[in-house]
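Encode chain A's predicted structure.
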Amino acid sequence: MPILAAFTIPAIGAIGSGIDAARIYMTKSQLQAGVDAAALAGARAFAVTDTSAKGRSKQVEAYFFGNFPLGYMHSQNLQVTPTFTTDKGINITTVEATADLPLTFMSVLGFDKQPVRAVARAELQPRPLEVMVVLDNTGSMKDNLPRGANGVVKTRMTATKDAAKSFVEILYQGAETRKELALGFVMYDITVNVGHLLTKWRSSSVRTLPGFNDSYMQSFGSWPSNPMAWKGCVLADDSVKDINTNYSTPETGAWDVVRSLPGENNHPPVTPYFIPPFWVPKMQAGNVTADKTGDPTHEYYQVANVEPGFNLYKITDMDASVINYAFNNIPALSSSPYRRWMYHYYLGLNDTASNNANDVITLKGGGFYDPKVYSWNFTTQSGTPFEVHYDRIPNFGAWKPATAYTINPKGGSTNNGSQNKTEPPSPNWQCPEEAEPIAYGKSKSYWVDTVIGQKNGAIYPANGTLHHAGLLWGYRLLVRDDVFTRSNPTNEEAKRALVFMTDGETALGASQNGFTDRTFTFYGNYADAPISASAGGLTTQSERRFSKTCASLQAETNAPKVYIIALTTTNANTLAMFERCAPGRVYRTSDTASLKSAFDDIATELVDLHLTK
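Encoded structure for chain A:
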C-alpha cells in the first residue's frame, strides 16, 4: 500500500498536467483570437478617437470580449491594453492581453497558476484608393432572404443597403472624411442613368429625341418638374449583332464593350432611354383580328386595372401638345417617340368610318384613318400624317397623376409589391437615379445616407436585369478620369477597384409579364432583336458583352481589381461569366450574414488592413 500511494500521487499529477496543459493551450488560442479581432477592429476605427461605441478603444474592447469572454476557462486578472501609433503614414494598432489561468491538477506538483499572454498588431497604410460600386436595383431585390440567426427576415435590398453601409464604414476607418479615398456608385436594372453626366462633358454625346430631350420639351421645364422630359437614362452604345466568344478582342463597331465614350472620335452618340409613358398589355403588331377590332373593352386596349394598383400617368394639355408635336410648326416633330407608340398601340381601334367616334388615331384635322389604306413610316418620316386624340384613349379617366419622379427610396424594404413600387410617371419609370462618378473628399454620410440610403432602391415592377449595363458604365466612370475628373490629393497613383453586386442572372423575356412586345431593355425593344439575329439571342449576347467589357477593363493600365458579389445566384452561365471577369474574387452569398461578410472582406482588403503580428 505505501508503494502504491507513492506512485499514485505523481501519476495523478502527470495525468492532470495533461489536462491543465490543454486548458492553457485553449486559453492561449482564444486569447490570441481576441487580440487579433480587437486589433483589426481598432485599425478600422483608427480615426475615431472619442469614447463612443464606434470609437477605436471601444471597438477594441467589444471585439476582444466578443472572442474572449470574461472568465474564460476561469482565467483571472485579465488585462487588455490597446496602443495606437502612426509611423511614416502607417496607422498601427497594437493590442496586448494578459491573464492568469488557475491550475487544477498541476497544483499537486506546486504550480498554482500559469500566466498567458497574446499580442496582435494591425496596420493600415492610407493610400489613394478609388472604388466604384455597382449595385443591382432590379425588382427582385424586394424578395426576402432566409431568416437570420437573430430571427430577423430582411429583403435583399435591405440587406444590401446594410452591407454596403458597413463596406463604406470600413473604407472610412470610422471617420467622417478620408482625404485619400474616392468613391463612386452606379445603380442599374435594365439601363443606367449617365446621360446628363455625358452632356455636361460634350453635348453631342447624346442624340436628340423630339419631344423628349430636345429644346421644345425643355421649354416646358427639366426633370423632375416636367416628368415627360428626359431623366438621363441611356440605351446601349451602337453595336454589331452576334459577337463571338473571343473575349480579348472586341469586334469593329461594337462600341458597347470598350472604354471609348459616345461622341468622341468615331464613337456614335448614345440614344436616350425611352419607355412609352403608359402600360398597355399588348401592342399592335400589324394584323388586327376581328375580335379585337374597335372594342375598347378588350384586353388589347386596356390601360387601367391591368395590374391592380398600378398608377398611370394622366396626360395634360402640355402632353397633348407633345403627342401632336407634328402640328405645332416645329421641324421633325412627327418623329416624337410619344407619337410612335400611341400610333402603334391604338391604330387597331380604327375599325370603320361609320364607327370612328372612339378612334385615338385620326387623319390630320380629323377623319377616319383607315389602317388598311393609310400608314406612317417612322424611319423615313413619310406616309399619311395622323393626329392623336389622347382623350379617347380607353379607360383614360382611370389614369392617375404621377406621384413619384424619382425612385422610391423604400423600394425593396418589404416584399409587398404594392408598398415599395416606383410609380411610372413618364417614359423614365424604369430609370435608376443618376450615377455618381468617382469623387474624393465627400463625407461618409453622403455615401451612406444619400446615395445608398435614398438613391438606391428596388425598381418594381421591373422589366428584367442586364448586368452588362451596370458593368460597362461602372468601368467607364472609374477609368476615364480624363473626362470624369477627380482630385487625387497625393502624387501617388491610386489603387482602383470595381465592386459589382447583383442578386441574379441576366433575366429578359420576350413575353415580359405574359405579354408580347413589351420588354424594353438597355438595347431597346427585345422583340426588335437589337444585338442578335433572333430575339431569343439577347440574353446570350448580353452575357458575351459583359465578358468582353470585363476583358477591356482588365487590359487597362492600372487595371482595377474586380470583385463580384452574387447574392442567391445559381444560374451556371451567369456564374461562369462572373468567374471569367473576377477569377478568385467572386463571392457567392445566400443570406444576410454572408452578404455582409463579403462586403466587409472586400473593404478590409482594399484598405490594406492586415495583421503584422
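The radius of gyration is 31 Å.
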